[in-house]
Amino acid sequence: MDTKSKKLAAALLTGIFCIIVFAGLALFFFMFEEMPVFIRLVYGCAFSGLCFGMSCVVTQRVQEIRKGEEDDLDNY
């Protein structure tokens, strides 16, 4: 497995894990009936927004890896 494949796998696995956690939290807050509706909506929408943001970041990172662009994190 070359370096490019390792970077791609790491980016995808980390992104998918974060999206699953954020989606689970969003569903938890949407289904938590003891909380007021407004609070459930705010928290649920916030975590749904984090899912969307993380999917955009993962998509951009995969494109960067495929193009062969180096990131600053490799320097540390």
Structure, described:
- The chain has one domain (3-68).
- The chain has helices spanning 3-31, 37-67.
- The chain is an all-alpha fold.
Which structural class is indicated by helix and strand composition?
Answer: mainly alpha
Report on the biggest sheet. none
The domain count comes to 1
Strand percentage? under 5%
Shape: elongated
Radius of gyration: 16 Å
Task: State the order of secondary-structure elements, H for helix, E for strand.
Answer: HH
Please tell me the overall pLDDT.
Answer: 86
Number of beta strands: 0
The gist of it:
Helix content is about 80%, strand content about 0%. With about 80 residues, the protein is mainly α. The longest helix has about 30 residues, at about 35-65.
Question: Which key terms come to mind for this protein?
Answer:
single chain; 76 residues; mainly alpha; 79% helix
What's the helix and strand layout?
Layout (H helix, E strand, L loop, with lengths): L2 H29 L5 H31 L9
Helix pairs in contact: 1-2
